[in-house]
Design a protein that fits this description.
There is one protein chain. The protein is mainly alpha-helical and 167 residues long. 47% of the residues lie in helices and 0% in strands. The longest helix has 15 residues. It starts with a helix and ends with a helix.
Length: 167
């Protein structure tokens, strides 16, 4: 159960970041994704249980507080059942990590292939990519020259001649 807890804690954070605390949104997501919710245990109940187990000063819960929350959810979902906690624990353990819903899939078509083929780019767009098609970042989008850093526009050819012409 601890591995499922940690996977939901880490959902949405950077890959190199380790997270050992769970907030209310991820606690609710765990209940939704693992199909714990039903008519007896609603999302409102899950929010109330989260607020019961967290401390007054903190906004997130630890694994031990999470276990207490699972016990409260089991009492609500399986009223009067002595094995309710074990049933809910098994349900959580059988689940996988969080799922990302509503994510846009990558389109695979000939039109998209033609539009994203960097070898066919012309003009200034061609300068944004190297030979392998990888983007150059800022180096490919900006001209780093003396005039640009001095504030002159591209069409102004007589740099530093204004004072000489307007004496």
């Amino acid at each position: 159960m601890e591995s499922v807890f940690k996977s939901f804690c880490a959902f949405g954070s950077r890959k190199d970041e380790t997270v050992d605390l769970m907030d209310n949104a991820k606690f609710s997501k765990l209940a939704r994704d693992l199909k714990v919710l039903d008519k007896k245990l609603t999302s409102t109940d899950v929010d109330i249980i989260f607020n019961k187990v967290k401390s007054k000063t903190e906004r997130k819960i630890t694994y031990h507080q999470f276990e207490d929350g699972v016990k409260l959810m089991a009492e609500k979902k399986y009223p009067g059942d002595a094995e309710g906690y074990n049933k809910l624990k098994d349900l959580i353990n059988s689940g996988s990590g969080p799922t990302a819903s509503g994510v846009t899939k990558t389109a695979k078509s000939d039109a998209v292939e033609r539009l994203t083929d960097t070898s066919k780019y012309t003009g200034s767009h061609k300068e944004r990519f190297d030979e392998s098609g990888k983007g150059k970042g800022l180096d490919g989008r900006r001209e780093f020259d003396e005039k640009a850093s001095a504030g002159y526009v591209g069409g102004y050819k007589e740099m530093n001649t204004y004072d000489q012409n307007h004496k």
